[in-house]
Amino acid sequence: MTLVLTTIVSGLCVGSLLLLIALGLGLTFGQMGVINNAHGEFIMIGAYTAYLVQRALGDPGSSLLLSLPVAFVTAGLLGVVLEVTLLRRMHRRPLDTLLVTFGVSLVLQQLARDLFGAPSVNVTAPAWLSGDPFVIAGADVPRTWVFLFALSIGCVLGLRIVLGVTPLGRRIRATVQNRDLAETSGISTAATDRMTFFIGSGLAGVAGVGVTLLGAISPTLGTSYIVNAFLVVVAGGIGQLWGSVVAAFGLGILESFIGFSIGQSTAQALVFLVVVVFLQFRPQGLIALRTRSIA
Amino acid sequence: MSLPRTLITGAAGIALLATTLTLSGCTGAKVGAGASGAPSAKSCVDTSGDSIKIGFINSLSGTMAISEKPVQQALYLAEKQINAAGGVLGKTLSVVTSDGASDPNTFAQKADKLLTQDCVAAVFGGWTSASRKAMLPVFERDNGLLFYPVQYEGMESSKNIFYIGATTNQQIVPAMDYLAQQGKKKVFLVGSDYVFPRTANKIIDAYAKAKGIDIVGEEYAPLGSVDFTTIVSKLKASGADAVFNTLNGDSNVAFFKEYTNAGFTAKTVPVLSVSIAEQEVKGIGVQNIEGQLTAWNYYQTIGSPANDAFVSAFQKEYGQDAVVDDPMEDAYSSLFLWKAMVEKAKSFDVKAIQENSDGVSYDAPEGTMTVSGKNHHVTKTARIGVIEPSGLIDTVWQSPSAITPDPYLTGPDYPWAAGLATGASAAPSN
């Protein structure tokens, strides 16, 4: 019984990480339809921001909390720069976007390598996160994971509120549901796109701060997350916030169960296989948007 | 709804692009074609002048650059010292450098160029087992000499390679001996998913079976993986009293962070690592691995006149904070071993060196290395170390004497290893 519980708990841990990295992509790829291969590099930028903030402040606790908003703004602004300089010009040319953002990701990786050096750097976890693990019904839950779980749920709720009740959220939803109609109603879709991209990239930056608690920070950090992020968004249903949440935790628990019963190195491959089969039967993902738009 | 399809098409596009890039990178060399059986090419090494060319092949770019750049620095230090003392057989060494770019195919291609176009007398370098396995057929076909400076998984011996790093019975077996000596009965194996950890763990499994140690778990993470929740949960559930770690690179950071988060410490369940040396400690962050064990043949802290001279010469050249480790020391020593072989053979000829290699020795910083002409490995002392807060490693145990290399574990000391060598990829060629 404890083993099953441990598996589920570690699945929730993996799930919250998946959710955190996929959330921003859910906006830019899911809502706007931009295939951004450089999304992983925004995660990397968030991670290096956490490193720089900690180097400046010294105290691990306050610098972790401060780096969350700083990374959000830094990655968000870089996202806007990318949107305005490149992506804006390739509207509705997804294949070109794919290649251009792939190139951007290589450029950003090399920049990071030149700025911070090829060897990886580290962030020290604050004392209140590195203490003894919590014990929940007999299963050990490391404090870092509780923090990441809370962070991802916090981001989901924040995003839900922004999309649901603010004027910006209404504009974003209108643009996603029918771009032309939104435009004719007087919404500046260009400005909306910029803001959506700001939030999406900013969330990647927040995810970057989160992953510094788990591993080393290196220029290629983003590449290990980008594929999983796309996986969650596609499996959850394009443009569906709740789909991403369900998919992230579902895939996390699935990976954890396979990891426990067969082995960690097979788990990832099998999870992909499951998703591929699933998409054969339900190409629109877990949750599909009902729309009359012909786009 | 056409978005996923677009994505798939796009991904295929990228894959195609990547393939094209790789292919265009390969056109220079016909790697592995008709490897060992072909009559060796006539040597083009020029021995008429005042200088003799040698080749250094290390990854100066890509993921392995972190580890391989310092190895090249050590090689250059040896070259400088040899030239300052009058060269080899009266000839000055002149170095041709190649970048292996962390890619096995590039290693093979550049090695071929070093041997057939630059016409070097010997090549020094390589790191990953994949890079060595890719270069092996090239050296056999072109009849060159490679001096390989890194510990590896054993089960290999080519007449064209000299293995200066430890083979299995000089690192992994003594490390298991040490754990057994400490009364550890339940060992958990964790490693990256590639050739070295899998081969090493096969040997550990056989050892454990014979010595009554339980292997309570054997887990592999994909190279570069940072997700260790499941593996650490399994470790916790297994009740292990020690961990044998063959993870590579940044995965170590993620593993040790997760291990600490789960409440483990070096006192309760120590981790013995075979791929973490002083250079890697810097990258992983000493606070994550302080007090953990390592298994190597050399540490910077070894107190001997030969090592003091090596460390101070290195720091004079590359800065007071420069750190040296086992592969760097092996690389440095490999150049001196080659020099000793050439001087014994009185020739730069590959065949003459092979025939005269047996018994050649060099007083390396780690102790005297003696070459075995039978399998082209060298004798080495095994050392277990503990990682200090300073980031350096202190020896806590060492083998009573230098261990004779036995890459296939066929000697009388390893009856439990019978049958392991049958699956090996290359048979002894000497």
Structural overview:
- The complex is a heterodimer of chains A (295) and B (430).
- With 295 residues, chain A is an all-alpha fold.
- Chain A has a single domain (2-281), classed as ABC transporter involved in vitamin B12 uptake, BtuC (Orthogonal Bundle).
- Helix content of chain A is 74%, strand content 2%.
- Chain A contains twelve helices and two strands, in the order αααααββααααααα.
- In chain A, a hairpin with a 2-residue loop joins strand 1 and strand 2 (139-141).
- In chain A, helix 1 runs antiparallel to helix 9 (189-211) and helix 2 (39-57) runs antiparallel to helix 3.
- The radius of gyration of chain A is 19 Å and the shape is globular.
- Chain B folds into two domains: 51-166 and 307-380, Rossmann fold; 169-296 and 384-418, Response regulator (Rossmann fold, 3-Layer(aba) Sandwich).
- Helices cover 41% and strands 17% of the residues of chain B.
- In chain B, helix 2 (65-84) packs parallel to helix 12 (326-345) and helix 12 crosses helix 13.
- The termini of chain B are far apart.
- Chain B: Residues 1-29 form the signal peptide.
- Chain B: Keywords: Signal.
- Chain B: This is Urea ABC transporter substrate-binding protein.
Structural class of chain A: mainly alpha
Q: Note the gap between the termini of chain B.
A: 63 Å
β-strand amount of chain B = 15-25%
Q: Using only CA atoms, what is the Rg of chain A?
A: 19 Å
Number of strands of chain A: 2
Question: Uncertain runs of chain B with pLDDT below 50, 5 residues or more?
Answer: 1-13, 15-40, 424-430
Envelope shape of chain A: globular
The proportion of strand residues of chain A reads under 5%
Considering the protein shown, what is the CATH homologous superfamily of the largest domain in chain B? Response regulator
Rg of chain B, rounded, reads 22 Å
CATH architecture grouping of the largest domain in chain B: 3-Layer(aba) Sandwich
Report the span from N to C terminus of chain A.
49 Å
